[in-house]
Amino acid sequence: MEAGQNLRETLENTLAKYKINREKVPLAELEGRYKKSYDKLKEELKQLTNDYLLEISVKGFKIGDDADELIEQMQKRIHDSEIGKRAGTAIFKNYSLSELEAIGAEVKQMLTEIYNPYFDRHCCLYIRPENLDPENPKTPWVYNDLIDKFWSFDRECWETRPKPEGGATLMFIRPKEGET
């Protein structure tokens, strides 16, 4: 079973337990006689919600040592969109995992828009000696140093490929100052 699916099931079960408690036991009792276990359940649900939201919205983004500005932009966008508040409402008020997943999809889209220019800046031409042969130059490969993969034009995807002997020069195309 995939880790994300297991996390989802754990969240779903914990949410169901929370919902039953809220619907069957008066809030005064939950915050009085059952305070310790109720607080523990709320904290567990909060942590699972956060973990699952990260799993469905942030997983898959690769970043390098130059990502400080990217992370700052992503955090600002999440903060400005009140994702935490909306996720809390989805789980603790509406008891809705599907609503949380819709928020997660929205976050993924938002972050992808910010991430794509960063990813593109890590794409370059992988120039080997045969690419510089004046008699019979071969087309250089497109490489991404962030994911350490080459673009396959035939398969239209990034793929792992052994690097050829003899080294290579990486030619990055950087935007002019002020461009993205």
Short précis:
With 180 residues, the chain is α+β, with helices and mostly antiparallel strands.
Description:
By secondary structure, the protein is of the alpha+beta class. It has helices spanning 3-24, 27-30, 35-57, 68-80, 83-93, 97-121, and strands spanning 123-127, 141-144, 149-152, 157-159, 169-172. The mean pLDDT is 93. It folds into two domains: 3-120, no CATH class; 122-172, no CATH class. It has six helices and five strands; from the N terminus they run ααααααβββββ. It has a five-stranded antiparallel sheet.
| Secondary structural class | alpha+beta
Overall mean confidence score, pLDDT: 93
Number of strands: 5
Helical percent range? 40-55%
Strand order of the largest sheet: 4-3-2-1-5
Topology:
Layout: H1 3-24, H2 27-30, H3 35-57, H4 68-80, H5 83-93, H6 97-121, E1 123-127, E2 141-144, E3 149-152, E4 157-159, E5 169-172
Antiparallel strand pairs: 1-2, 1-5, 2-3, 3-4
Helix pairs in contact: 1-3, 3-5, 3-6, 4-6, 5-6
Give a quick set of tags describing it:
54% helix; 5-stranded antiparallel beta sheet; 2 domains; elongated; 180 residues; 11% strand; 6 helices; alpha+beta
